[in-house]
Amino acid sequence: MPLSPYWLRDNCPCPECRDPRNGQKLFQVTDLPEDLAIVEQDEHSGHLEVLWSDGHRSRHPLDWLDAENTGDGRSEAGKRLWAAADFAAGLPEADWAAYLADPAERAAVLGAVLRSGFAVLRGVPAVEGQVLDVARTFGYVRETNYGELFDVRVEADPNNLAFTSAAIAPHSDNPYRDPVPTLQLLHCLDNSAVGGDSGLVDGFRAAAQLRAEDPAAFAVLTRTLVPFVFRDRTTELRADRPLIELDALGRIREVRFNNRSISTLRLPAAELDAFYAAYRRFAAVTLRPELRLDFRLGPGDCLVFDNVRLLHARTAFEAPAGDGTGGSRHLQGCYADLDSLASTLAVLNRRVAALDTIAGFFEGEGAAEYLGEAVTLAEHMLQAGALAQAAGAPDHLVAAALLHDVGHFEGTGLELMAGRDNRHSDTGADWLAQWFGPEVTGPVRLHVAAKRYLCTAEPGYRARLSEASEYTLRVQGGPMTEEQAAAFAALPGAADAVAVRRWDEEAKDADTATPGFDHFRPLLAALMR
After folding, report:
1. Disulfide engineering: 412 pairs with which of 60, 223, 422, 464, CB 3.0-4.6 Å?
2. Are residues 217 and 292 in the same domain?
3. Measured between alpha carbons, how far is 246 from 220 in angstroms, rounded to an integer?
4. CATH number of the domain where residue 130 is located
5. Percent helix, strand, coil in the chain (nearest 5)?
6. H helices of 215-337, where?
């Protein structure tokens, strides 16, 4: 298909045009010439190569050119709209310990919040302030006039209906702010009261229902600015926003709904009549029993939900008696934002995909022979990682030992055995640099040089090499000269590279049981950047 020259050039991925570390552009669009044109273009090795009229060259992956526009996922197009019956099999939930330990589990929880609007973490320690730690696993706490942390319990002089035992209809929090906190967390410390169950309504589903049943009412609520107001002795807040906000393509992007916080609209009578008719119609939709998902939070349960999509509610409960008898209900909450959660999820998914790629090499090419040794390439690398771990090495060295020979994947070890140096240490380090810092890639890059160094620096080291290792030593340049060895020893990463080299030489025992790749996944995930 025809391509827009300015779009193609504006998206040039080369290091002259974009910072390779963060992808930010290094030029202004006005820096491009007025008469920009494509002089030549050719498809080669899965890329579109372009020569521009100003002499610049671009190289674009073909699969990138064919990618669809997925958007930011914040509108209804990126959501799973639901009714209560859709969760008959259970809520999206996870155990707190598993969430902390397993990146894939954490990604599943955060993905559920983005797609369905909520998730519940079970077994979160029921101690005060813990909800802040939950929020910090994926983002930053949003401080408001309620503080960094707020308690949801019966108070003697409440400034908000939430701090009573009354029932609360479906609503969103803080609609009088702009920007509104887009995430809310509620962590249950105690719920021994009679009543006090939690409820959720998918505001996007309710708005979509209104659009289908009464398009005119839906249109009124998307264009009428509603004054949301909150005031007490120390605070006065106001934000004029529609109840249903659309993006530029007309898709539902945000719902603000809070009967308690709507102040006085000042509009002509006919517009007020139309607004209140639409407002009442929408409120009735949000109260439909089939849309409301009710459940009970117990001590240790933490609910995380999208505050600009879901409406949350509560049934009434018995307040504690004045003599201290009766049950009580105590939740602690905080606010956070969806952009941080989405960022964390994107990084987690990137890491999970990277780990899957590396695991695929261990299971595929890693099953091949390892340069004539008694173990396969994967067994050799797993043994090296296990030896480093058993020696109490820091995590970055365990990772370097485990991954030191990734440059041999895709059959390049055969090239080495044929007498041609495949420079697998450099190839492997460069490939790993997509995800790991120099503390991991440095020892990988230097582990071949470390063998050459040890053969010079330690009498008797060369005699202990296996037959295959002695052969590859000669192909890779043989022992260093005294001058080369001294220069190597002075390198900042020499000691780490030597440590990896020693585990490399030991990791060739066919009778040694070693853990599988999954054993090392959490360690690698924690080191990824």
Report:
1. 422
2. yes
3. 12
4. 3.60.130.10
5. 45, 20, 40
6. 215-223, 269-286
Domain range for residue 40?
5-65
160 belongs to a structural domain? yes
Q: Give the closest residue to 305 by CA, choosing from 513, 92, 60, 33.
A: 92
From 45, 65, 85, the end of a domain falls on 65
Residue 44: which CATH number? Answer: 3.30.2020.30
pTM of the predicted model, to two decimals? 0.81
Q: Is residue 358 part of a domain?
A: no
Q: Can you name the residues that pair with 49 across neighbouring β-strands?
A: 42, 59
Model confidence at 422, in pLDDT bands (50, 70, 90)?
low
Residue 423 sits in a domain of what CATH number?
A: 1.10.3210.10
Cβ burial of 443 (10 Å; 0-12, 13-18, 19+) is buried
Instruction: Give the pair of three-digit tokens for residue 411.
Output: 């059959």
For residues 57 and 162, membership in a common domain is answered with: no
What is the per-residue pLDDT across 66-91, written as a single tens digit (0 to 9) for each? 888 888 999 999 999 999 999 999 99
Helices 494-506 + 377-390 axis angle, to 10 = 120
- 465 or 202, greater pLDDT: 202
H or E segment and range at residue 346: helix 338-363
Domain count, the chain: 3
Spatial neighbors of 365 by CB under 8 A, at least 6 apart, are 377, 409, 410, 411
Q: What is the distance in angstroms between the CA of the first residue and the CA of the last residue of the chain?
A: 36
